[in-house]
Specification:
Elements: E1 3-7, E2 10-12, E3 18-25, E4 32-39, E5 46-51, E6 55-57, E7 65-70, E8 75-80, E9 89-97, E10 114-115, E11 119-123
Parallel strand pairs: 2-11
Antiparallel strand pairs: 1-3, 3-8, 4-5, 4-9, 5-6, 7-8, 9-10, 9-11
Length: about 120
């Protein structure tokens, strides 16, 4: 059974940093594309950082957020620096199986089948 659990969210001041983690269980992360998504109140869920054979970042987070993975720990990370008020949202990780061959995955939420429940990030002074 595929399970993803996010952690590391919280309250942070503008300009601060957080590191989100997404730990997978029930499967090996090695053959999955991984992504981080967020949903702010009243807005649609959006992809912000996705990693397959290549890495993709939304323009709004480029240079501030970094996605990484540790397959040995079955964990995906999102390092968030220089946080802004508009980064406030529920952050979700998601994965999609891609097999053994290199595959470039996009970052559209509809492309990912397995999701965690999310972790709240609030940026406030």
């Amino acid at each position: 059974q595929v399970q993803l659990v996010e952690s590391g969210g919280g309250l942070v001041q503008p300009g601060g940093s957080l590191r989100l983690s997404c730990t997978a269980s029930g499967f090996a992360l090695d053959y999955y594309a991984v992504g981080w998504f967020r949903q702010a109140p009243g807005k649609e869920r959006e992809g912000i950082a996705c990693l397959s054979s290549s890495v993709w970042y939304a323009d709004s987070v480029k240079g501030r957020l970094t996605i990484s993975r540790d397959n040995a720990k079955n964990t995906v990370f999102l390092q968030m620096n220089s946080l802004k008020l508009e980064d406030t949202a529920v952050y979700y990780c998601a994965v999609e199986p891609v097999g053994y061959e290199p595959v470039v995955m996009g970052c559209a939420p509809d492309d990912y089948d397995y999701w965690g429940r999310g972790t709240q990030v609030t940026v406030s002074a």
